[in-house]
Amino acid sequence: MAESSLIIIHNMLVHFMSLELVDGYPNLLVNYGSGTTRLNNSVIEVADGKPHLIEIVLMRSSIEMFVDRCKLSTCMSLAAPTGPREILNVNGPLQLGGASIDLQNLARSFGWKHVPTNTNFMGCISNFTYNDFMYNLGRPSVDHNADPGCQKSVFTAVTFGIDTNFLVAILVCIAILISIVGAAPDISGFLDDKKSVLDRDPDINPYDDVRHYAYEGDGNTSGSLSSLASCTDDEDLKFNYLSTFGPRFRKLADMYGDSDEDRPPHEESWC
Fold first, then answer.
1. Domain enclosing residue 267, as ranges
2. Burial environment of residue 149 by CB neighbours within 10 A (0 to 12, 13 to 18, 19 or more)
3. What is the structure's pLDDT at 137?
4. Burial 30-54 (b: 16+ CB within 10 A, else e)
5. Are 79 and 29 in contact (CB under 8 A)?
6. Are residues 244 and 168 located together in one domain of the fold?
7. CA 265/CA 236 separation, integer angstroms
8. What is the pTM for the complete model shown?
């Protein structure tokens, strides 16, 4: 395995992320669009012919890199993103094993402060995981000198789209967690759309407003909230059945029910 080589580069625009080996140690470059942040691990060498796990976590306020699950302060790398930007725009291609274009020229065009190496990676890449999804690396968009079975242990650049199946074999597992949403989501448009759909539904009431809820009886005052008003003058409010509920409901019967003259002479009561 080459001790200094490019393992991964993503996007290759103002926003980009790259993982490379520098003298056998992992080196991470991340640019959210407002400046490049550099993280390196000088404790665990990964160019020793043994399998290693590299985890990258990209968040709004921090960038983290772990090697072989080591969470000690001596072997983990942590830094804040450079500039005010907080997310990585990753609409560009993702390449493993090298870059298909000259990164030096690209850096001059976009003003990169740190430039990834153009030296292609020679080794084996496997178990590539992106946002908790493991790709089978079976069919990249473009590949060159890549062996899907890692038999030759040598390959250069492999380029593929982020939504396709991929090729390439690995020595490093990259788990990249990227925040896509910048701020609290605005759901007003979603709610307006849903309300509009309900208003047009022929199987429900045509209006969804306060008036409808205030008079949920829909014209039947005995089932309406207005029936609770003691000052109502509706003639169709009949509560003479309240007198049969016993002394516990006497007050309600006096307020809403029939008069003493209308009550039967031998009225039963409940205890």
1. 238-271
2. exposed
3. 65
4. bbbbebbbebbbeebbbbeeeeebb
5. no
6. no
7. 25
8. 0.53
